[in-house]
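Hi P.,

Sorry for the delay on this. The queue was packed all week, but I finally got your sequence through. Input first:
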Amino acid sequence: MKQSRAMGFSIITAIYIIATAIGVFLFLMFSDLHVFWRVLIGDVGATVFVFLAGVALGNTSVYDPYWSVAPIVILSGITVYYSEISLGIILLLLAVWYWGVRLTCNWAYTFINLEHQDWRYDKFKNLFPRIYQLVSFVGINMVPTLVVYLCLLPGITFIQTSAFNAVTIIGFVVCILSATLQLFADLQMHRFRRENAGRKLIIRAGLWKNARHPNYLGEIVMWWGVYIIMLSAVPPMWFLIIGPISNTILFLVVSIPLADNHNRETRPGFDEYKKETNSLIPLKKIF
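Then the structure:
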């Protein structure tokens, strides 16, 4: 069963439907709390279920789609809950759906089956065999959930308004351009891997010529775009900048070093490539 790609998709889809139901139930159950707390409780509850499903299946990658699915579900659900719609909210949802559907499709394209697990999780499992499930729960499941939750707070705040102005449009454009940057970066990487299947080569074309992680740049800037949209409506909530800052730190401190170290170990010539390129900006390196 775990070797079947179609069965894997079906199982993960069922897991996420149940996780969504759990999150909605918890959100509605704590109706006396502020919406931020209600979303957090529902988000954490859904994450715990996805984690337990991954443990039962022996595959931590069950969590992988959560990053892109949760924002669509949460922001769309909040919009329905407040039963208010405006041009600004439509633009926000369009941006998040465009980003989330594309990223989820990218995950689906690379999904093999339930026997395959992300190399990073295998690395952690080898490093911490006795406490791997704790590492998985905290580091692989809960920390990303909390980072995304913080990134969603500006969006949740904006949905409770009916604002629309030039700054809203600027934030929307930033989101669309960021998601599109990710799209082209991923397409270029997929084509490179198809053309060089089985060969441990380094991509040196397109957006990847001058940057090692242009896809991560798109992911980082996306949530700054959502923050800008929020600022167009409620500038006094500026402190929600903690969301995009947390996301940026996660990539700079965890994701990028992990990927660079992995490539250094598996791809000859990576050190030279690193010296010649920027980490994120796809422009010719100056210093």
